[in-house]
């Protein structure tokens, strides 16, 4: 549907409807030509549920839904590692065969019907996604509330030339992703959604096209390889995968136990080593008027666009073995997406500094990290050994907390994004005159500055409430081009 | 009730452990019987704000719940023990009475620890005796203000105010308000929230 968006509802064509369908706002012509023709399908398609207005997903979609139960075994193992791990632990061969025989026709019918009743529509202010076979559901996603737009192309989807498009908005669910769209359509739709969200006039938004981008950082393959080899978790998973199943076999004498423990561990080892390598391969961060663009992946290509002012928190990590090279990993939290997304899997400090300055305007990493104050020495009685890792710093724009002794972690929350501030104190901490300060931000998380001196903690809480209120005034508009 | 302890620069402080009437924890002192009591704290810019406690009915309600739970747990246990092991064993169920007595006392301490203050730009909620917590929510960040009142709370003439911000971690609620006060607070917070609105 590249460039051919028309506003449905602006031209009524009730005369074109067949009697069983209620008069609805006119449909839009569609690049695939699926929408217009199918809706008026006479005779054999009468028994199908009414088709909702809007544009249909790519016709390959029902196949993916049909095969979902079986694909768990074969396809997802290649395509979607995390899910494959969950499935494999649950399925046995008998169940899979049963599923093949019994579920396949049902799954096929369900896949087709759910594709039939799913459609989307772009209006001036919203993306509407209609779905649901039995329980009809219309998700109205407000474009000015977009927190991020993701276009994902899993390996098989790349072969088929399709892509998934997902909008991160607070409250959206997994089913609110548009899977699948033709690749060109997905890119055009993303450009249009971002243009509308940015506040470009509605008439020109469909043809505004992609905003130009400027490459900020690209992770060299060699750097990524070395960096991942220097991460302890991957090695410990590999070691455990090699040792534990043999140990189980030797101990219990049954290969079943070895397999039962080995398979999930193998999954874990895969995700934290090779899987991670495949995901983080060829990592690019670029900047455009629409915000940050993050592109990555070797087999599954993923793309995310994070509009300006959407970042709620940035987490900077440094595993112990990266310290001598001064490499950093950066993750960002955006409201509405599940958990944290990686911003840069590995970068030297200069690159990290530059990227951070783009992500959080006016924030300098070196300044933020240098401003971190350690906790008082008596904190050793609360958290032995690790107390040295804790720290809290405040700069003009962000609240910085530090944690960790071997693997160091800094969390930067812009003052403008702090939703509420809390102070907590348990009985032991009270004896030590210590307290924890929490700053809650909108990405379903909070950062904790542990073990502060109690007087300081009170001052921080009070001042932080003030800062987060005034910090907001300098924030840009939600529609970033207005 | 004594003035809430003040921070070095007039910052809100967590109150110190049972700060008055240690002799009789059940008696909260005359000042606390009325939720409208004001204890002035001074903010750095000189404007006043007042800590308010929650209704005494909340304590009565919680104690009533304690009293209701005790026999429903203890009586069947006593009957069972008496039937299986002998009547003297049934006396074992008296052991939990000591923690229950402590609970009676702890409820009073906990009730007294709940307080809130409306400052010019944010709402403070302080609570807890052993594990203390002070929550500061700027008015502009409130997404939703909710007043609820369950059947038991209605019986005691109470309502509960819950604040939601965009951060799920914000757990800001004030139990034990008179419905009129809860509604006044809700209206005021909504109004202030609109005036100072700031989203994510």
From TrEMBL, chain A:
Domain YdbS-like PH: 115-192, 285-357, 387-460
Keyword flag Membrane: yes
Domain of life assignment: Bacteria
Protein name per its UniProtKB record: PH domain-containing protein
Region (Disordered): 1-53, 462-482
InterPro entries for this protein: UCP026631, YdbS-like_PH
Residue stretches spanning the membrane: 95-118, 224-251, 257-278
UniProt KW keywords: Membrane, Transmembrane, Transmembrane helix
Compositional bias per record (Basic and acidic residues), positions renumbered to this chain: 1-43
């Amino acid at each position: 549907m590249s460039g051919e968006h028309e506003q449905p509802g602006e031209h009524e064509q009730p005369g074109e409807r067949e009697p069983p369908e209620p008069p609805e706002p006119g449909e839009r012509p569609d690049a695939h030509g699926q929408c217009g023709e199918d809706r008026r399908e006479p005779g054999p398609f009468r028994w199908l549920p009414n088709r909702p207005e809007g544009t249909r997903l790519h016709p390959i979609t029902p196949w993916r839904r049909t095969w979902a139960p079986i694909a768990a075994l074969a396809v997802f193992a290649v395509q979607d590692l995390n899910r494959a791990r969950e499935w494999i632990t649950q399925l046995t061969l008998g169940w899979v065969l049963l599923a093949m025989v019994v579920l396949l026709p049902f799954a096929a019918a369900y896949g087709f019907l759910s594709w039939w009743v799913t459609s989307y529509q772009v209006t001036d202010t919203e993306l509407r996604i209609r779905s649901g076979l039995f329980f009809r559901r219309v998700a109205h996603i407000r474009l000015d509330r977009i927190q991020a737009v993701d276009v994902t192309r899993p390996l098989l989807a790349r072969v088929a030339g399709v892509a998934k498009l997902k909008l991160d908005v607070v409250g959206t669910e997994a089913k609110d992703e548009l899977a699948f769209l033709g690749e060109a359509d997905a890119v055009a739709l993303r450009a249009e959604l971002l243009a509308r969200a940015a506040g470009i006039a509605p008439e020109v938004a469909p043809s505004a096209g992609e905003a130009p981008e400027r490459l900020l950082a690209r992770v060299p393959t060699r750097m990524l390889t070395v960096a991942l080899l220097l991460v302890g978790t991957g090695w410990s998973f590999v070691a455990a995968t090699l040792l534990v199943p043999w140990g189980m076999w030797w101990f219990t004498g049954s290969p079943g136990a070895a397999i039962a423990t080995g398979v999930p561990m193998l999954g874990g080892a895969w995700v934290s080593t090779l899987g991670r390598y495949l995901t983080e391969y060829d990592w690019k961060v670029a900047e455009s008027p629409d915000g940050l663009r993050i592109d990555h992946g070797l087999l599954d290509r993923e793309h995310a666009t994070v509009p300006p002012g959407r970042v709620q928190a940035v987490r900077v990590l440094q595993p112990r073995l990266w310290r001598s090279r001064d490499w950093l990993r950066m993750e960002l939290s955006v409201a509405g997406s599940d958990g944290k997304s990686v911003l840069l899997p590995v970068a030297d400090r200069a690159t990290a500094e530059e990227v951070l300055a783009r992500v959080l305007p006016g924030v300098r990493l070196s300044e933020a990290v240098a401003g971190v104050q350690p906790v008082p020495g008596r904190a050793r009685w609360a958290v032995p050994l690790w107390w040295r890792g804790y720290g809290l710093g405040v700069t003009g724009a962000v609240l910085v907390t530090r944690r960790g002794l071997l693997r160091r972690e800094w969390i930067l929350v812009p003052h403008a994004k702090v939703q509420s501030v809390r102070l907590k104190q348990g009985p032991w901490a009270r004896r030590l005159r210590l307290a924890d300060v929490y700053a809650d931000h909108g990405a379903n998380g909070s950062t904790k500055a542990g073990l502060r001196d109690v007087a300081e903690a009170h001052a921080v809480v009070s001042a932080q409430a003030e800062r987060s209120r005034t910090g907001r005034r300098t924030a840009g508009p939600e529609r970033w081009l207005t | 009730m004594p003035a809430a302890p003040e921070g070095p620069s007039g910052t809100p402080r967590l109150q110190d452990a049972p700060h008055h009437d240690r002799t009789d924890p059940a008696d909260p002192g005359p000042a606390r019987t009325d939720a409208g009591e004001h204890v002035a704290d001074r903010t750095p810019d000189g404007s006043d704000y007042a800590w308010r406690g929650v209704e005494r009915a909340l304590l009565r309600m919680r104690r009533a719940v304690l009293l209701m739970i005790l026999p429903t747990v203890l009586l069947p246990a006593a009957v069972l023990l008496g039937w299986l092991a002998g009547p003297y064993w049934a006396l074992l169920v008296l052991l939990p009475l000591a923690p229950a007595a402590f609970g009676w006392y702890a409820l009073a301490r906990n009730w007294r620890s709940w307080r809130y203050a409306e400052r010019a730009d944010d709402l403070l909620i302080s609570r807890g005796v052993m594990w203390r917590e002070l929550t500061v929510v700027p008015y502009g960040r409130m997404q939703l203000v909710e007043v609820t009142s369950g059947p038991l709370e209605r019986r005691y003439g109470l309502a509960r105010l819950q604040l939601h911000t965009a951060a799920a971690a914000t757990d800001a609620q004030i139990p034990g308000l008179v419905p009129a006060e809860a509604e006044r607070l809700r209206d005021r917070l909504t109004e202030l929230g609109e005036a100072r609105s700031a989203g994510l």
